[in-house]
Each structure stands twice: as C-alpha cells, then as structure tokens.
C-alpha cells in the first residue's frame, strides 16, 4: 500500500486515562487508516508527575514498533505541541473536585480552553481540525472556538459519539438484535444527562425503531435516562470516569469525520437548526462531505416529546454559555 505523508496529531492530557487508551490506537492506524503515518505531539500539564508519566507512555509507544508512528513529541508547552498540528484532540481538563459547583468547573476549564484556542489558532496547520473531549466538552469547545480568528468555527467539534454508541447498544439489547442492525440513532444537545438520543428516527433492520420497540414509555423514560446517566453509572462502578470507551468513541468521531458519506453525531456550532440557540455547540446529526468537513442533516421532524427534550438540553447549553460569557468576549 502506498503511504501518505505523515500528519501531525496533537493530544492534550496525553498521560491521562483516556490518553492511555487512545494513543496506541491512533498509532496503529485505527483513527486515520492503515496508509496514514502519524507524528504524535503529546501535551501534558506542566507538572513533574504528569511529564514523567508521559515519558513512560512514550516509551511504551516506542516499544510497540508501530510502522505508522513516525515521531513522538513530549511537551508541557502548548505552542510546541500544537505546532503545525493537523488534528488537535483536546482531552486534558480539570476534573470536578468535591463540593465544586458546575460554574466553577466551567470557569477553571474555560481558562485552559481559552489559552489552547488561541495557541491552536496561532500555530496549528492551515487545515487544522479540533475535537474536544474534556468536560464540559460542548462549552469547552465553544470557548476554544471563540478564540480563533484564522480557523473557522466549523473546524471545532465536541464529542457526543460515546453517547451515540451507548444509545445504539441499548436499543440493540432491548430489541434483541445484533448491534449492527441499529442505524441512525443520533445525539442532540449537550454531553450531559440532558442530552437527547433521538430514537424516533433510528431504524432496526431497516424498520423504524419505534415499530420494533413499541414500549414508548421505555424509550422516553429508561432508555433516555440510561444513556444520559451512563457516564455517572460508570464512575460509580469503576471509581473513575469512562476511559477506554471514551477513547474508542474519539477514534469513531475522527474516523467518521475523515470518511466522506459517514453519517454520525457530533457537537457543532449551532446555526439555529433543531431550535438550538445560535452559537452554542450542540450535538446533532451530520454527514461528512470531504475529509474533515461535514454538513448538518436538518430534515428530521420532531414530535412534542422530542421538542421538549431539545428545549431542555438547549437551555442547559445557554446557561453554560452565560456562566463563561465574561471570558469569551
Ligand atoms: P485524567 O485525569 O486521567 O487525565 C487528564 C489528563 O489531562 C491528566 O494527565 C492531566 O495532567 C492532563 N491535563 C490537565 N490539564 C491539562 C492542560 N491544561 N494541558 C494538558 N494536559 C492537561 O482524565 P481522563 O479520564 O483522561 O478524562 C479526561 C477528560 O475527558 C475529563 O474532563 C473527562 O470528564 C472527559 N471525558 C469526556 C467524555 C466525553 O464523552 N466527552 C467521556 C469521558 C471523559
Ligand atoms: C462520560 O460520559 O462517561 C463522562 O463524560 C463522564 C464524566 O463526567 O467524566
């Protein structure tokens, strides 16, 4: 197979849990394909412990002898890590501490994403794409994008693919079918319990999911709740937030974004579609057009139940934006 020239992939929080589950898959070709060499530009917080852990991860990457891995940069300086990056995967974020209010978390992380947004805009490659995972992912993405003067806002996306994957599995289990029978299940709104997994447009073996799963009360209640609160359930069970499944979802998010024709959920800048406030970053269905670019699929009709769910998740996104409004002016 003819090899392409290497692309540069910057990853923040590279020595964290998600980073550890992600980097080996990028280097093996799962994210960009078996003919796409990569240079990993790994960015950590400027602490000795974090940088030491990063050194260990880089040693392990070396020890895998991945043919596609053409270089590893280890740095605590974002201006070095984002330099000429074609993809910037923003995973590093401050976790919510005991007694910390959501508004405090938003402000603390806001500072990180303002700085990173400015530096990416200044030093990343002309074709740079940004995918945000660090929570609160939608609003962090909006904050980073707000700092960009060179890169268009559409290049900044946040991850709701984990929620889509969770929803797909829940529908398959309920219907007693293979996972691959479930299609067109999309996530709308915030990556938080308010998100809306829009079951009405999903199909199972080509039929409307609602004609296969006729228990509307389950779809509107336990299904939405299980998907929305899955992250918390994993924290309760594992004692730490989802990492392998989050890394897997980021592989899916980027892989779908570089695959023309792929139809999938990502959080993007709203232009008012589905009633989302303009300029919040909301999960919605998109179709990849050319590698890295997409169009929002706007044609899905929403019933009253869906409209109330969309309004609730939009309200939360608008509130999050209000918390950080003074930072993004
Ligand atoms: P983690 O604490 O294991 O790792 C985070 C890493 O980020 C740490 O190594 C830390 O040193 C680093 N970091 C912190 N600030 C940084 C900065 N300014 N620059 C570079 N690195 C920095 O956490 P994790 O389990 O890997 O999760 C990371 C984030 O992803 C969290 O915010 C978590 O809530 C979020 N998350 C999102 C989803 C999603 O679906 N969107 C799913 C799971 C987790
Ligand atoms: C998840 O959905 O698993 C995470 O976003 C949960 C969290 O708060 O880290």
From TrEMBL:
Domain Lactate/malate dehydrogenase C-terminal: 161-320
A Gene Ontology biological process term: tricarboxylic acid cycle
Molecular function, one GO term: L-malate dehydrogenase (NAD+) activity
Protein name, as recorded: Malate dehydrogenase
Catalytic reaction annotation: (S)-malate + NAD(+) = oxaloacetate + NADH + H(+)
Positions contributing to substrate binding: 96, 102, 135, 166
Coiled-coil parts of chain: none
Active site: 191 (proton acceptor)
Transmembrane segments: none
Keywords: NAD, Oxidoreductase, Tricarboxylic acid cycle
Family according to the record: Belongs to the LDH/MDH superfamily. MDH type 2 family.
Protein's organism: Opitutus terrae (strain DSM 11246 / JCM 15787 / PB90-1)
Pfam families: Ldh_1_C, Ldh_1_N
Role: Catalyzes the reversible oxidation of malate to oxaloacetate.
Chain sites annotated for binding NAD(+): 13-19, 109, 116, 133-135
Start and end residues of each Lactate/malate dehydrogenase N-terminal domain: 8-152
EC id: 1.1.1.37
UniProt enzyme class: oxidoreductase
SUPFAM superfamilies assigned: LDH C-terminal domain-like, NAD(P)-binding Rossmann-fold domains
């Amino acid at each position: 197979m003819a090899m392409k020239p290497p692309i540069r992939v910057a990853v923040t929080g590279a020595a964290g849990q998600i980073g550890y589950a992600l980097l080996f898959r990028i280097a093996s070709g799962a994210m960009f394909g078996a003919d796409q060499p990569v240079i990993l530009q790994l960015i950590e917080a400027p602490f000795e412990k974090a940088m030491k852990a990063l050194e260990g991860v880089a040693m392990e990457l070396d020890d895998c002898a991945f043919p596609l891995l053409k270089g590893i940069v280890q740095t605590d300086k974002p201006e070095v890590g984002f330099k000429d990056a074609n993809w910037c995967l923003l995973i590093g974020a401050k976790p919510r501490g005991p007694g910390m209010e959501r508004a405090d978390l938003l402000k603390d992380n806001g500072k990180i994403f303002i700085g990173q947004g400015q530096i990416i805009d200044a030093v990343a490659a002309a074709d740079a794409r940004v995918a945000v995972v660090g929570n609160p992912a939608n609003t962090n993405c909006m904050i980073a994008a707000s700092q960009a003067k060179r890169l268009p806002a559409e290049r900044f996306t946040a991850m709701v693919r984990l929620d889509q994957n969770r929803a797909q599995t829940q529908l398959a289990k309920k219907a007693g079918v293979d996972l691959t029978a479930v299609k067109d299940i999309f996530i709308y709104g915030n990556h938080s319990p308010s998100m809306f997994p829009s079951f009405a447009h999903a199909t199972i073996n080509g039929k409307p999911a609602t004609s296969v799963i006729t228990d509307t009360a389950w779809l509107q209640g336990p299904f939405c709740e299980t998907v929305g609160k899955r992250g918390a359930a994993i924290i309760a069970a594992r004692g730490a937030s989802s990492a392998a499944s989050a890394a897997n979802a980021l592989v899916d998010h980027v892989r779908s974004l570089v695959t023309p024709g792929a139809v999938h959920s990502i959080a993007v800048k709203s232009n008012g579609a589905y009633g989302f406030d303009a300029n919040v970053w909301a999960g919605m269905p998109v179709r990849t057009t050319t590698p890295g670019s997409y169009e929002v699929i706007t044609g899905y009709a929403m019933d009253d139940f869906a409209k109330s769910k969309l309004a609730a998740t939009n309200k939360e996104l608008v509130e999050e934006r209000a918390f950080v409004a003074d930072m993004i002016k």
